[in-house]
Amino acid sequence: MADNRFYGTGRRKTSVAKVWITPGKGNIIVNNMPYQEYLKIQSNIQEVEEPLKLVQKINDLDIKVAVSGGGISGQSGAIKHGISRALVEYDQSLRSIL
Question: Is 7 helix (H, G, I), strand (E, B) or coil?
């Protein structure tokens, strides 16, 4: 992609997350809020970080998420799914790891 943005859609239960990844410093913004503020619960925060930690990119990429539907738990699962899909768009070789 010419503008270095990579997109992935994640779904879980009735939640849908639209995820954009750009090279950056590790900022994750969910619905215009820092993800720790939005998700609040530590297990949900860890779920969102999991794919990034798996590929060791947690401090290398900025992520912007628009998520809707369902509850916070379903939304965090949808965000995780969307991040994983966007990471594969970013680098196909990550597919086997994820």
Answer: strand
